[in-house]
Design brief:
The protein is α+β, with helices and mostly antiparallel strands. The protein is built from 4 helices and 3 strands, in the order ββααβαα. It has helices at 24-33, 43-61, 72-78, 81-96; strands at residues 4-8, 15-19, 62-65. Strands 1-2-3 form a 3-stranded antiparallel beta sheet. Helix 1 runs antiparallel to helix 2 (43-61) and helix 2 crosses helix 4 (81-96).
């Protein structure tokens, strides 16, 4: 079983459990989630690709939210927007951690 980190969210006090590191495959999944390589790509499709990439990053990085592994992304998105923003920042730090090594 992979090492995880439990983090108490500042915005609501709920526990978020994330993977301690990402595998190469998970890193590629997130990277692909941020791309829109279609010839018709516009600024609005780039924004949508960014949102899709953030969602993929949350799906890949987060193991559980508020004690449950069920529908993590949906529950984060249905909570206060500050939850999504804080979770995004935590996952971005984990995702960007590969640059530090």
């Amino acid at each position: 079983m992979r090492e995880t980190k439990a983090i108490t969210l500042k915005c609501n006090g709920k526990e978020l459990v994330v993977k301690a590191y990402l595998t190469g495959r998970e890193d590629e999944e997130i990277t692909l989630g941020y791309q829109d390589n279609s010839p018709e790509a516009t600024r609005s499709t780039a924004v949508l690709a960014g949102v899709a990439g953030q969602h993929k990053m949350i799906e890949v990085c987060v193991v559980s939210y508020d004690g449950s592994e069920e529908k993590i992304l949906d529950r984060i998105l249905d909570d206060h927007k500050d939850v999504r923003l804080e979770v995004r920042d935590i996952c971005t730090e984990l995702y960007a951690d590969k640059e530090k090594k």
